[in-house]
Each structure stands twice: as structure tokens, then as C-alpha cells.
Design a protein that fits this description.
Length: 303
């Protein structure tokens, strides 16, 4: 009897041990490291000094605004385009299989490769997008897209409007994430019972009413999963920033994840880097909690 009760825990033990080794221990060690300060190779307890140094720095405030700008633009564009493409592909157009294959291509590329490719696109001499981004409407006046430092701000302490490089970075990130979001929403739409949609259309419901009253509530769990993916990817992704802009021009695309990379691997200040990583983890948890609450309220409203 005791063996039968303990059997599920014994079967789960290898997975739980692996999770503890690769996630729990590094997380706890990061929290510990955030309270340490290294002097001549000797670590000493510093309390919350690392957090205070990070939060008081001008780079942290500027990177926070850049992160907010990037995440908002990234999520809005990716979700809008992904939903639109999913609706089109759900109509089973001719050659829809070929369209799916083309849409899927960016997803298999790494962030670093995507950044390098889009950097070549914007090359002022040979880039295929250089004639477009050099138009006067972009305010570049012939200068390179990734080297134009923004000179105007609505408020001196807030880096807004974003630089052309930040907008370009958002477009590149959207292009990379769009296949996954499109396929996720398309798979959810294809599970919606056709009989229900046909019955609603027979009763006189328009396409918009069918989508808002039937399709969207049923795909809402997948929308929440997509939001989780975009939030975590936008908050923690550093590969594309590293390969496309390097945080520049100046510091106009230096988001929090890239600031963490700079502090940890360029300045080798692991105490401050750990403090910033703990802060980013707290932000991730907060954003996911908010997304869960919004999705629950949405489900209750549609119920």
C-alpha cells in the first residue's frame, strides 16, 4: 500500500531533480549573488547595495523606457498581424500549404541570425531596404538607419519618440515571432466547431459577430499562451539586440536584457547583474500574473 502511494512521487523524482538542478538552484544562487559584492576576488555581504546602485543609474531608467517601448510595439504588432494571418489562412485559400511553409521559415532561425540578416537589409550601400528607409519621411536624410541618433524628445528624461533603430528592431522581432503566433492561433481556430459557426450564420450573424461571440472566446486560451510567449520573449530576448543594433546607436536600443548582458559580461560586475536579473524576473512574474487576470476576466465576460 505504501509502495503504491509513493510510486507517483518516485516516477516524478528524476524530473523534479533535473528541474531543481537547472532552474531552482541557479535561481536561488542568483538571489544570493545579488546580495554579494566582490573585492579583489573576495565576496562579502552587501545587502541591497547592488539593487540601489542599479536603480539609481541613468542607464537603468533609460533601458526601462526602451524595454516598455519595445514590448508594447512588439506585442501589438505581432498579435494583430498574427490574428489577421490566422484568419486568412483559416479560410483554406488555394496554396495555403505553401503559404504556411513561407510563414514558418523565420521561426526556425535563431535571434542572432535574424539580427544579422536584418542588419544586412539596412546596409546603406547594399541593403535591399536602404532606399526605403532613406526616404525623407523617416527623417534619416541619407544617414544609415542603425546609426541615426535621436535628437528630439517630448520630455528630456524620457527617450520618446523611439529612434529609427528601435522601430526597425521591433519590426525584425515581429518578423521572427510572427510564425509561431500565427500557427498557434490558426490551430486554435481550426478547433472551433464549424456547425456552431454555420448555425450562427443561418440565424443572421455577420462574420464579425461570429468572430467576437464564438471564435474569439474559444481561442482565448491560445491568445493567453501567445501573450505569455511574447512577454517573456520581449522581456528577456538579447540575441537580436546584440546582433542587430548592439544597443545603439548610442544607447537608443539598450533594453534591460542587453543592459544585463553589458553589466555581467562586459563590466564583469556579477553582483549588479544578479540584482538586475532578479528585478527582471519579478517583472516577468508580474506581467504574467496580470495577463492571467485579464484572461480570466475575459473568459468570465464571454461565459
Amino acid at each position: 500500500m505504501r509502495t503504491s502511494r509513493a510510486l507517483p512521487f518516485l516516477l516524478l523524482a528524476p524530473a523534479l531533480i533535473m528541474i531543481a538542478l537547472v532552474q531552482l538552484y541557479p535561481g536561488l544562487y542568483t538571489v544570493f549573488l545579488s546580495t554579494q559584492q566582490s573585492n579583489a576576488g573576495i565576496q562579502s555581504f552587501s545587502g541591497t547595495d547592488n539593487f540601489q546602485v542599479v536603480f539609481d543609474s541613468e542607464a537603468f531608467m533609460e533601458s526601462s523606457w526602451h524595454t516598455v517601448t519595445f514590448i508594447v510595439g512588439y506585442i501589438i504588432l505581432t498579435m494583430s498581424l498574427g490574428l489577421g494571418l490566422a484568419l486568412l489562412l483559416n479560410r483554406k485559400l488555394r496554396l495555403s500549404g505553401a503559404y504556411l511553409a513561407l510563414v514558418f521559415i523565420p521561426w526556425v532561425l535563431s535571434d542572432v541570425i535574424v539580427g544579422l540578416v536584418w542588419k544586412l537589409f539596412a546596409d546603406p550601400d547594399t541593403g535591399i531596404l536602404s532606399p526605403l528607409v532613406s526616404l525623407p519621411i523617416f527623417g534619416l536624410e541619407g544617414s544609415a538607419l542603425l546609426t541615426k541618433v535621436p535628437t528630439f524628445r517630448f520630455i528630456d528624461s524620457i527617450p520618446f519618440p523611439p529612434s529609427p533603430a528601435m522601430i526597425y528592431l521591433i519590426f525584425a522581432a515581429v518578423w521572427k515571432a510572427l510564425p509561431f503566433i500565427t500557427l498557434l492561433l490558426l490551430a486554435a481556430m481550426q478547433t472551433v466547431p464549424k456547425e456552431v459557426l454555420e448555425s450562427a450564420q443561418i440565424d443572421g450573424a455577420s462574420g464579425r459577430q461570429c468572430f467576437l461571440a464564438i471564435t474569439f472566446p474559444l481561442v482565448l486560451p491560445s491568445v493567453v499562451v501567445a501573450l505569455f510567449n511574447l512577454i517573456l520573449g520581449g522581456m528577456n530576448g538579447v540575441g537580436m539586440v546584440f546582433s542587430l543594433t548592439g544597443g545603439g546607436p548610442g544607447s537608443s536600443t539598450e533594453v534591460l536584457s542587453y543592459l544585463l548582458y553589458t553589466i555581467g559580461f562586459s563590466e564583469l560586475d556579477f553582483g549588479r547583474a544578479a540584482a538586475l536579473s532578479v528585478f527582471i524576473a519579478a517583472i516577468n512574474l508580474t506581467l504574467i500574473t496580470l495577463a492571467l487576470r485579464v484572461s480570466r476576466r475575459g473568459s468570465e465576460n464571454y461565459a
